[in-house]
Design a protein that fits this description.
Layout: H1 11-24, H2 37-44, H3 48-60, E1 64-67, E2 71-74, H4 77-80, H5 83-92, H6 99-120, H7 126-141, H8 145-162, H9 167-174, H10 176-190, H11 192-207, H12 211-227
Helix pairs in contact: 1-3, 2-3, 6-8, 6-12, 7-8, 7-11, 8-9, 8-10, 8-11, 10-11, 11-12
Length: 235
Amino acid sequence: MEFQKISSPSLRELFVEQLQHMILSGKLKIGEKLPSERQLAEMMQVSRAVVNGGISDLEKMGFVHVKARSGTYVADYRRKGTIETLLAIMKYNGGSLRNEEIRSIFEVRIALDTLAARLCVDSLSDEQIDILYEKVCEMKDAQKMSEAVQAAFEFQHEFALMSNNALIPLIIQSFKSPIFAMWERYCALYGLEALYENNYKMWTYIANRDTEGVIKWVESSMKNCIEGNQQIYYE
């Protein structure tokens, strides 16, 4: 059995995490001005370098906005955020997504998969269809949830690559962590078999080069997760 090295977070990471929690909990309000870096360093008993680096990280994530000669303000992360913002929200929520985020990711999945379908389904080679079928078989044979979810992600990502659109696979890859969390939740509620059956059904339409069939299946299966009988919301 292989054990991994345990490492503790740095002061900079702890600083970022504490301010994220204060912002996400509402203790720090949008538009509120933060104390100066010197004051933050004194209050939190860390160096100015830790505070400066942490503020830079928080700004990249969309949590704060630094105004020249004015100070640092809490930003509206819904407007300024990135995928890192979403991952921070997941961590704050104990690894789970909020209902609006789950719904939003399913809606993005509909947009990306239907676009990929329009770009490639009718021109896929037999070899490409076989590659997708291998991922479906991996889902069917999976003994663990992690294996099934990994295969489901790879199925979607391979399909995106086949579209020859440079951005679709990059977007999907950037959402890997929340996508994994959602499909793990799905499998926990409905079983690995349901995940396999959904993806197998999509593959059958792909194998028949049925673009409209793929689009209709993606829309119906995702909407079933949004508002039908296979919802995965936590509340």
